[in-house]
Structures
1.
Amino acid sequence: MAIFTLTDCFISVNGVTLSDHANQVTVTDTRDEVDITAFGATSKAITKGLGDASISITFFQDTAAGKVHATLQPLIASTTGVTIEVRPTSGARSATNAAALMTGLLMNYNYLDGSIGDASQITAEFKNSAQAGMTYPTA
Amino acid sequence: MNKYRVLLPLTVTPRDVEPGHEGYKQGEEFECEFPVDEERNYLDGGLLEIVPREYKVVGTSVVHGHQPGESFLMALPRGEEELLLGYHLERVDAKSKAKPKADKG
C-alpha cells in the first residue's frame, strides 16, 4: 500500500463493528523512558521501560439499540478487557492492511459532548489492559 | 454458564461438581459457571478452552463479522459475552430452550 488517505478505517469494539459511526482514530504505542545515567557520566543515558498502549476513537453518538451507546455503556462499568481492533481499511487483515489490536479497558466515555447545532460526537479512550500490549497482526 | 474442554493432562474438579466425582480429564467437557477472572486464568494458562456455542446477532451492528440476523459459532469468554448479550447477541440454545413445548393432540 502506498501513501493513503483515511477514508475507510475499520473499527471494532468487543467484536462490534462501529466503523460507520466513527471519523477519527488515534493508535498510541509507547515505552517509558527510563534514565540510567550513572555517576561519572558526561551525557544522559536512557533505556526503554514498560510499554503502554491506547486507542482513542471519536464516534458520532447513536443511542439506537445495538449501536454506539449500547456498545460502550456496558464497557465503562466493566473491569473486563475487551478486544479493540482498527485497520487502515475495511479489507481483511493482510501485510498491507495490518490491524492494530489491543485488549483494553474503556477509561473515558463522555456520553454527550457538544453545543447547539453540533453533530453529537464523543471520544472513547481505551487503555491497554493486557501484557500483550499493542500488536499488529497481518492475518 | 459455558461449556469447557480440558486441554492439559490434568484433572479439573470444579467447585460445584457432584460429591464423589473424580473430575474431568484431558479432552473431557463439562459445564460450569466460573467467575470471569477465574475463567480468564484457565483460558490464558491453556488449561481449558471454551466449547463454541451458537449465537445470533440481534442488534443492528455487525458483530464478529456477522450481519444482523445471522447465527454463528464462537467461543466467547464470559466477560466479553456479558457485554454483548441483549443489545448485540443472544444465545441460540437459550432461545430454543425457552420455547414452550407444543401441545400433543
2.
Amino acid sequence: MTSTNAPSGAEVSRRSLLRFAALAAAGGGLGFGAIACSSPTTGVDTPTGAPHDGGTLRVGLYAGANDLNPLDSTSELTRWVTDSVAESLYAYDDNAQPVPLLAAAAPAVSADGLLWTIPLKPGIRFHNGDPFTAEHVAACLNYANNTSSPSEWIIYYFGYLAEAAASDPLTVTLKLTKRYGLLQSHLTNMPMTHKDFLKRKDAVMGTGPYALTRVDLGTGYTLERNTAYHGRRPGPDRIQIDVIPDGTTRTVNLQEGKLHIATQVPPQMVSVLEKAPGITVTHVDAPVDILAYPRVGKAPFDNLAFRQAVAYGMDRKGVLDKVFQGDATIGQGPVGPAVVGWDPAFAPYRTETDIDRAKALLAQSGIKNPSFTLTISNRAEMRSIGQILVEGWKKIGIDVTLDVLDGGPWTQKWITGKYDFIMGYYQSGLGSGNANFLLLSPAESTNILNSGYNNPEVDQLIQRTWASADPAERATLIKQLNTILARDAIMIPPVYPRTVIAQSKQVTPLSLPQLKLSRLDLPNLRMLS
Amino acid sequence: MTTAPLSPAAPPAAESAADRWAARAKVRIQRVGRPAPLTAVGIALVAAFAVLALIVPLFAPDPNASAGAPLEHPSSGHLMGTDHLGRDLLARTAAGARLSLTVGLFSVLLGLALALPLGMVAAYRAGTWVDDVVMRVLETVQALPVFVFAMFVIGLSGTGSSHVAGITLTMSTKVVLLLGVSFMPYFARVARAHTLSETAEDYVGALRVLGLPRRRVLGEVLVNVLPPVLAQGFLWIAIAIFAESALGFLALGVPPPTPTLGGILADAGNYVLANAWWYSVLPGLVLVLAVTGFNLVGDALNDRIDRGGSR
C-alpha cells in the first residue's frame, strides 16, 4: 500500500506548475501594484525652437472607423481621419463663419430660395490628378440625398434637396423643395470626394492636403502630404493615426513621446497629464452631446409627469463630479454651451437632484411600480453615467434596468425606436457644426429618428429654424425650441461634456476655434525643434 | 452482589461520547489522510473565497450605492477602498465573487448533468453509431472556443434578459447556459473514458449475465464513474470562474450595475495611472487566489481518486 500523501512524479509536475502559476500571479500582482504606485515617466522634452514643416505627426484615436467614407459617416472616427483628405465647399473661419474652400464664392440664392448656384474654384485636382468639377459635387450631394445609399447625410438633405446638377464644369445648381437657410452649414460640414469613391468604405479620395495612402484595418492609417495641394502648404510630411482603444495606453504613449496628440482623454487621466511636463491639455466646449431621448410614443414615457419626474430625478451632479471630474456643464435641454442658441440663464434643472419634486411628479403621473430600460452605448463614460443615473432614479422609486450595447446594435435600436430611454455619446459638430441640426431634428414629428413626440408648435419652430438664413433669427428660434423640449422632457442630457484633447509640446497648439467645432485641423500643425 | 458506582453515571457517559466522536474523527482523518500543504492552501483559499462570496455580502453595504468619495484609499471605513463611482469595493468584490461562484457552480453542474448521460451512453454503446453521433456532435461543440461562442450568442441575444418560449433568461442564466454547454464535451469525454473502463470490469459482465436491465447496469456503473467526473468538475469550477470574469471583462457578461469580478477589473484598468492601485490589484488578487484555490483542491481530488483507482 502506498503512503497516503506520497505524490507520484506526474503529481509533482502538476503541483510545481500550479506553484509556479501562483507565484507568478502574486509577483505579477505586486509588480503591477508597484507600477501603479509609481509616477509615470515621460519621454517628452519641451522644445524651444521655431515651428518648421516636415516630420511625421502621430495621433492616437480610440477606435478604428468601420466606414472610411465621409459621405456615409459623420462619426469622429471617420472624420478625424478623412478631414485632411476630403475637403468641403466651405470651411469655418476662426469666428465659425463659412468661407469658400472648394467653392469660389458664397452661394447665389434665387429670390424664392429654391435654387442655389455655387461656383467652384478652378484648377483644383483630386489626389489621382483628376480635375475637381461640378460633376463630382453633384454626385456627392445626390448620393447623400439618396434613400438607398447608406449615407448619414440623408437626414440633412431629405425632404429639402430635390436635385443637384452640374450646370457647367465649375458651377453646381441645387434645386430645393422648400427654403433651407441652413443648407450652407451642411455644405460647410459635408466633405466632397471623387465620384468613383462614393460607394467605397475602405478608402477615400479628395482634394485635401493629404492623401490616404495606407489603411491597417483596426490599427491605423497613414496620410502622405499632397505635394500638388491647392491651398497653403500643410505642415507635417506625414500623419500617422494609430488606433489605441485603451485611454490609459493612449495617454501613456503621449507621455512617452510616441504620440503627439491623444484624442478622447479619459477624465481620470486629465489631472495626471496636466502635471506631466511637455504635455498640454486643452479643454473646450465643443458640440459633444450625450443624446438622451425617452421614447415618448409609448408608456411610461408617454406620460408628461413621469418624464418630468425622470428629468428632475436625474443625478446630474453625480455624473458631473464622478464621471467628468467637474469638467462639464449641467444639462438642461438639448442645447449646450458650444452651439447656437445656448442660454446660460436657462436652468430648469438644478445641479443637485430635486428628489422631492421628482417624487411629487411621479405620484402625479399615477404610474404604479414604475420601471424602464435605459439603453446606453458601450463606452466607459456612458457605462458610468448609466450606473449613476440608475442609482439616482432608484432613490425616487423608479426601477431602471441598464442595457449596454455596442455601436451597431445601439444605432439599430435608436433608428427602429425599440427603446424606453436611449443615451449615447456623440460628436454632433462634425456633421452639424454649431447649428444643432442633428440634435434637434428628431423632435420634429416627421423625422425618422422621432421618439413619438408630436407637438405642432415644435414642428413649426423647427421648420422656421432650418428655413431661416439669418443666424440671429435661428438662435432665437432654437432658444424657444430648447425651452419647450426641456420643459416637456423630450431631450434631457445629464451634462454637456467638454472636449478634452492632450497634445505634446513638440507640435504647435491645436486651433481652439476649430476644436470648438470638433475639428482637429491637423494640416496646420507644425513640429517644434 | 453489585455495588453502586462511586461517581454519577452522566459524566463518564458524556466523556465517552466525546471520546467516541474524537475517535471517529481520528479514524476519518487517518482514512482520508492529512492534506498535503498545497492542498491545505487550496482548501483555505476556497474557504476564504466562499466566505467572501457568501458571508461578506450579508454585512457589506449596497454594492451599487455610492458609499463615499470616488477612489478612496483602503481604510477602516472601506477595507478595500472605493471605486471610481464611490462605491465600496469590498461590497462590490464580494457581490462579484458571489456571482462568479454561483455561475461557476451552476455552469459546472449543468455541464455535468448534460454530459454524464451522453458520455455514459456513448461508452456503453461504444463502436456503434450512437457513440459516433454523440462524440462527433460534442467534438463540434468543443471546437468552438468559449469566447467565440459567447460573442455569437450574446451578439444575437444582447446583454440584457432574453425571452425564450415564455421563459425569461437573465444574463447570468445565459452565462450559466453558455458555459455549461461549452464545458459539456470535456465532461462527456471523461465520463465516456471512465465508463469504458468500468464496463470492462467483471462485475458489469456479471450484472449482464444476471439479466439486469441496461438502465440498472448503467446505474451501477454510475456509482463508480461519478467520483472522477465530479473531481474533474471541481477543477472546472476554477475555469468557470475565470471564464465568467473574462466575459465580464470583455463586456459580454452580466451588465452593469451588477458587479462582476471581470467588470470591476475592466473599470479598474482605466484608473491604474490615477494612483488607484487597490482598485485593480485587490479584486485581481481575489480572482487569482480563488482560481488557484479551486485548482489546487481539484487537483488534490483528482490525485486521490487516481490513487483510489490504481489500488
3.
Amino acid sequence: MKRIILILFPVFFTFQIYSQFSPGFVEQCATNSGKDATYLKDFQVVLNAALPEQVPPIARYPLVLSKNNIYRFSLCTPEDSPGKAILQLFDSNQLIFSSYNKETGEEYNPFNFLCQKTGIYHVFISFQEGKEGHTVGILSFVSK
Amino acid sequence: MLRQTTILFLTVLFLFSCQSRKGKESGTEFEVPDSVITAEALTISNEALEEIVQNVSSPIEMAALIKEIGVPFSTKYLATTDYVDRYNTSFKMAYSLGVFGADLGYLNIYDKSNQVIDFLTAINKLADGIKVGQFFDFETLKRLATSRESIDSLMYISVNSFNNMDSYLRDNNRGHLSALMIAGTWVEGMYLVTQVASEKSNPELSERIGEQKINLNNIMLILDNYKEHEQVMKVIESLDGLKEEFDKVEITYVIGEPETVEQGGMIMIVQNEKSVVNISDEQLNKIISKTKQIRNKLISV
C-alpha cells in the first residue's frame, strides 16, 4: 500500500509543477516588458521534446490585434528550460515575424509590431531544435 | 487490493481537484454544486469556444486609445457601484461582473486608485455571489491599486482573475455565466468609447468603433451557444439591433508586405497590409445611440 502512495505522489507532484508556472513568475514576466508597455495577456507554454522525425510540437494561440496599435511580444524563459523558445506571429497562414532567425541564429526578444489591420492573428510558440521546454510569452500594448 | 487502489486513487484525485474557497455570503438563489450540474448542450465545442473567447479584444485597448487622444478621465462614463447589493440573480451578477471589469480597466489606465477600490469591492461581491470569489485576489489587487507599485502587476492579476473565473465557469457547466460576463465587458467597453465619440469627433475613434463589428460577431457566437438560457436570449435580442447596424459597416483591405525597421534599439515590424473601415456619421450615431440604450437597459436594477 505504501508503495502505491509513493508511486502516485510523484505523479501528481510533477503535474502540479509543470502544468503551470507560479503566478509570481508570470507576474514578474508581465512587469518586465518595459516602462512604455502595458501588459495585455500571457501565453504559458510547456512542451515535450519532439520524437525523432516528428514535427516539433507547437503551441498556438489566437488573438485580436487592433489597427494603429503597437504591440510588444516578449518571451520569458526560465533558466531551467532545456529548449530556447521561439515566438512566431502569423496573419492567417502568412508568417509576419519570427523571434528567431534559423539561418543567422539571431534572436529578437522582445519585438514590436505596428498593427495596421484589425483582425485575428495567431501566435505560435515552439522550442529551437524541437527540444523540450517551458516559457511564458507576453503580449503588451506600447504607448505611442 | 484493486478496491483499495481505486479508493486511494479517487481520494487523491478528489484532494487535488478541490478548490480553496473563502467565506461566502449566501446568495439569493439555491446553489447547485458544480459537480451535479448536468453538462450544457453546446452547439460548438469547448475548444472552439475557447478560441472565440480569446478573439474578443481587451477593453483596456479602448481605454488606452481614449487616453491617448487626450480625453480627460470622467466618472460619468462608469457604471455605478451603488446598487451592487441589488444585483441578486446569477444573470445580473455575471453580467455586471463583466461591466465592472471593463470599468476597472478604464480606471487602471487612468491610474485612479481611489475609485478602483469601489470597483474592486463590487467585483469581489459579485464574484462571491456566483461562487467564483476564490479566483479574485481582492487583497492583492487592493494593495497594488493603492500602492501603485506596478500597473503591470495590477493588470496581470486583474486579467488573470477574470480568465480564471471565466475558465472555471465554462469547465463547470456554467458557461452561460461566463458568456454573460464577456458580453458585459464588451458592452461596457463599447459604451465607454461611444460616449467619448459622441462628445469628441475623432477619425481613429470612429474607425475603432466600426472595427468592433468583428468583436460583436464573436460575442454573438459565444452567446448563441447558450441561447437556451432565457437571460442569455434576452441579451442576444438586445444585441441583435446593434448587430444590424454593424452589418452595414464595411471593412476593406489594402494588400502590402510587412517591413522590419529598427526603432530605439528594438526591432519593429511595420504591417503594410491595412484595414479600412467605412462608417458614415449616420451609422456611427445609430451605433452610439443603440449602445447607450442596450447598456443602460442591461445594467438597470
